[in-house]
Design goal:
It is built from five helices and no strands. With 124 residues, it is mostly helical.
Length: 124
């Protein structure tokens, strides 16, 4: 098969974003339009998110067959929930329009990449 493979891209993004959120949570938060100075909880919540994303990536890497399919489904469910949380936060005014678009778009993109990875991996 030619072209980029969705599974390694998905895992790589999970590690990059997850480690970034854990190691430099203020900078990662700012990249998504969050303001850690006005909201000092951003680093804590960012690290929770980062640990989850690294765990999801590691689970996919360390598994195969039905176990990998389960990890991919779990990641997809988290990404859909993240997108819904972004929309809810934007509609309730917790996030501004730019931040809403950034967090929701990133989560929706990850969900789409997860679907592509499941298809490429033969997950149903």
């Amino acid at each position: 098969m030619n072209g980029p493979q969705p599974l390694p891209i998905l895992v790589g993004l999970r590690f990059a974003i997850g480690l970034g959120a854990w190691l430099v949570p203020r900078a990662s938060g700012r990249a998504f339009g969050l303001d850690p100075r006005r909201n000092p909880q951003v680093p804590y919540v960012g690290r929770l998110f980062g640990a989850r994303d690294v765990a999801l990536g590691a689970g996919v890497m360390a598994s195969e067959g039905e176990a990998r399919a389960l990890w991919l489904r779990l990641g997809f469910a988290c990404d859909v929930a993240d997108a819904a949380a972004g929309l809810a936060a934007g509609s309730r005014g917790y996030l501004g329009p730019v931040s809403t678009a950034l967090v929701t778009g990133a989560a929706a993109g990850a969900a789409a990449l997860g679907v592509a990875a499941m298809r490429a991996d033969g997950t149903r």
